[in-house]
Specification:
This protein is an all-alpha fold and about 180 residues long. It has one helix and no strands.
């Protein structure tokens, strides 16, 4: 019996030792776990606080980004409106430039026509001067011709009178010629 009791006791001791070892290991493990959890809980609280700070900072950054995005959208809209206004103004200026260019072409054509008219006027003035000179000369010729015609007419009249006198005096001249000879 003693060997059977000793075998049972050894078995029981072994089981009891195992159970006591497990119990002591569990208590020791729980103590270590509890000891380790105190810094872990503190670290967890610290990490949770850091996480909340990061989340808060991230939310601030998100808000800042949203504000900047809104400002950018407003700036883009404003810039687009200004660009549209400038494009409209540019189109108006292009139209004005086109009109001014057309007016310039018209003015240049008028200047060319005026220059041609001035040249033509100068030519006509030269011709007028030449015609006036010629007319003056012809008037002088006509005036001289009238004087000459009057002189010729008077001379012819005087010649006719002289011829009549010659005719009437001819018989007397012949008589006087005969008597003088």
């Amino acid at each position: 019996m003693s060997s059977s009791t000793t075998g049972k006791t050894t078995k029981l001791n072994w089981k009891l030792s195992l159970l006591l070892g497990l119990l002591a290991g569990g208590v020791l493990g729980a103590g270590i776990q509890h000891y380790n959890n105190v810094p872990v809980t503190t670290a967890y609280s610290s990490l949770k606080s850091d996480y909340q700070s990061v989340v808060d900072e991230l939310n601030k950054e998100k808000l800042s980004v949203k504000q900047l995005t809104d400002e950018k959208a407003l700036l883009v809209e404003s810039s687009n409106q200004k660009l549209d206004a400038l494009n409209l103004q540019l189109d108006k200026q292009k139209d004005q430039l086109k009109q001014l260019t057309e007016q310039l072409v018209t003015i240049q054509k008028q200047q060319e026509t005026t220059q041609k008219l001035v040249v033509t006027k100068k030519k006509l003035n030269k011709e007028v001067v030449a015609l006036k000179t010629k007319t003056k000369q012809q008037k002088e010729v006509i005036d001289n011709s009238n004087v000459l015609f009057e002189q010729k007419s008077k001379t012819q009249h005087d010649l006719a009178v002289v011829q009549k006198q010659i005719v009437t005096l001819s018989p007397e001249i012949k008589k006087n010629k005969k008597s003088v000879c």
